[in-house]
């Protein structure tokens, strides 16, 4: 199963809807890789013994892991958390998320500052590079269970836009937005 991603339209509709442009404009895994977003599809039913997940973690140095069940029944201040996640921001480190159950959307900015909506479903593992402007929301199912992976101790600090002088943003600009064809979807699948 391939990742589904598309350009979005900004409007006042429920943020949990797909927000396709009219006409719809889908985005390829190669385009995502060009802006630094990597993707794998794994078996979410076997995450505890998945050799491919173990290899990704070892190869990329992800030595810390936790789980997040995101739904109204399990998260204190649920609505406020979702508003925070949906505020456009960057992180100083990669954001690594593996969807085990449910669905959600990661929106990322491309080189032309257009929003790309990435629909993550069970089995989808994505890596957002440090410094990429992004946001997150659930879809209309209102539920997702995510594995969060980190290099070292977890850091959840979000730096809300504008952050063009933040070191991770400057590094991102240098590595991904000034070059064409950077990254390879062959590294991931």
From TrEMBL:
> Which residues of this UniProt protein bind Fe(2+)?
89, 91, 95, 134
**Its domain of life?**
Eukaryota
Q: How does it sit in the membrane?
A: Peripheral membrane protein
An example Gene Ontology molecular-function term: acireductone dioxygenase [iron(II)-requiring] activity
EC number(s) on file:
1.13.11.54, 1.13.11.53
Binding residues for Ni(2+), per the UniProt record?
Answer: 89, 91, 95, 134
The cofactor required is:
Fe(2+); Ni(2+)
Q: Which GO terms describe its cellular component?
A: cytoplasm; nucleus; plasma membrane
Could you tell me which pathway this protein works in?
A: Amino-acid biosynthesis; L-methionine biosynthesis via salvage pathway; L-methionine from S-methyl-5-thio-alpha-D-ribose 1-phosphate: step 5/6
Instruction: For this entry, list what GO says about its biological process.
Output: L-methionine salvage from methylthioadenosine
Q: How is the cofactor bound?
A: Binds either 1 Fe or Ni cation per monomer. Iron-binding promotes an acireductone dioxygenase reaction producing 2-keto-4-methylthiobutyrate, while nickel-binding promotes an acireductone dioxygenase reaction producing 3-(methylsulfanyl)propanoate.
What is catalysed by this protein? Answer: 1,2-dihydroxy-5-(methylsulfanyl)pent-1-en-3-one + O2 = 3-(methylsulfanyl)propanoate + CO + formate + 2 H(+); 1,2-dihydroxy-5-(methylsulfanyl)pent-1-en-3-one + O2 = 4-methylsulfanyl-2-oxobutanoate + formate + 2 H(+)
Where in or outside the cell?
A: Cell membrane; Cytoplasm; Nucleus
Q: What keywords were assigned to this record?
A: Amino-acid biosynthesis, Cytoplasm, Dioxygenase, Iron, Metal-binding, Methionine biosynthesis, Nickel, Nucleus, Oxidoreductase
> Which family does the entry's similarity section mention?
Belongs to the acireductone dioxygenase (ARD) family.
Q: What does this protein do?
A: Catalyzes 2 different reactions between oxygen and the acireductone 1,2-dihydroxy-3-keto-5-methylthiopentene (DHK-MTPene) depending upon the metal bound in the active site. Fe-containing acireductone dioxygenase (Fe-ARD) produces formate and 2-keto-4-methylthiobutyrate (KMTB), the alpha-ketoacid precursor of methionine in the methionine recycle pathway. Ni-containing acireductone dioxygenase (Ni-ARD) produces methylthiopropionate, carbon monoxide and formate, and does not lie on the methionine recycle pathway.
The protein here is known as: Acireductone dioxygenase
Biological classification of the source: Eukaryota, Viridiplantae, Streptophyta, Embryophyta, Tracheophyta
